Amino acid sequence: MFSQDSEPVVLKRDVKTIVVPAGIEIELLKDSLVYITQAMGGSFTIYHEGNLFRIAGIDADALGKDPIKPPVLPEDATDKEFEEIVREQIRTCYDPEIPVNIVDLGLIYDCEISLNGTGKRQVTVIMTLTAPGCGMGEILVEDVREKVSIIPTVAKTNIELVFDPPWNREMMSETARVELGIM
User: Fold this and answer.
1) What is the reported pLDDT for 69?
2) Does domain 7-63 have CATH number 3.30.1390.20?
3) Of 70, 85, 152, 164, which one has the fewest beta carbons inside 10 Å?
4) CATH number 3.90.79.10 given to 79-180
5) Which of 53, 74, 75 is nearest to 63 (CA)?
């Protein structure tokens, strides 16, 4: 929520946002005063008129911030190096309500990478949510798709959202548990 640490910003342009946690898209208008409450992984959670909203990293310029950029992929990257870059990109995806990346939250079950005939790659990410009815589910899926799709040589990104096995707190990394005060 809004706190003294929140950064006040006047929007530089109209921008599409997602209401947290409802997941509804709303456009906020240029010159609106907003407060950045969380800036993680290139995306932003802002407070405006009593509500929280998520602004995607590609729209960071509306806040006067730098938009997300593709990661650097060495020309001679091995399959293992490419997979590590994919995992690091996914690690930049955060639940707008929880200041922990979705990898440490235990939401990523698998990541499959294959080459097509043109030397481009197809990436399939199998993931879940903390709860099946999570209003931010589609936003998290799109965040993963966006972050993986900007990696050089990725031709297609598939995201499979599954609920079996169901997520539970034991799936979180020790880092996430410490950060959230869950022991």
Assistant:
1) 84
2) no
3) 164
4) no
5) 53
Asked if 99 and 179 count as a contact pair (C-beta separation under 8 A), the reply is: yes
Give per-residue pLDDT as tens, 87-136.
999 999 987 778 899 999 999 999 999 988 888 999 999 999 998 888 77
> Residue 95 belongs to what H/E stretch?
none
State the pTM of this model.
Answer: 0.78
Can you tell me the distance from the alpha carbon of 94 to that of 96, in angstroms, rounded to the nearest whole number? Answer: 6
Q: Tens digits of per-residue pLDDT, 59-69?
A: 999 999 998 88
Q: Supply the pLDDT for residue 116.
A: 85
Q: Strand 15-20 and strand 51-55: pairing?
A: antiparallel
- At residue 74, φ and ψ (nearest 5 deg) are -55, 145
What number of helices (H) and strands (E) belong to the chain?
3, 9
Distance CA 55, CA 98 (A): 15
Count Cβ atoms within 10 A of the Cβ of residue 48 and give its class: 0-12 exposed, 13-18 middle, 19 or more buried: middle
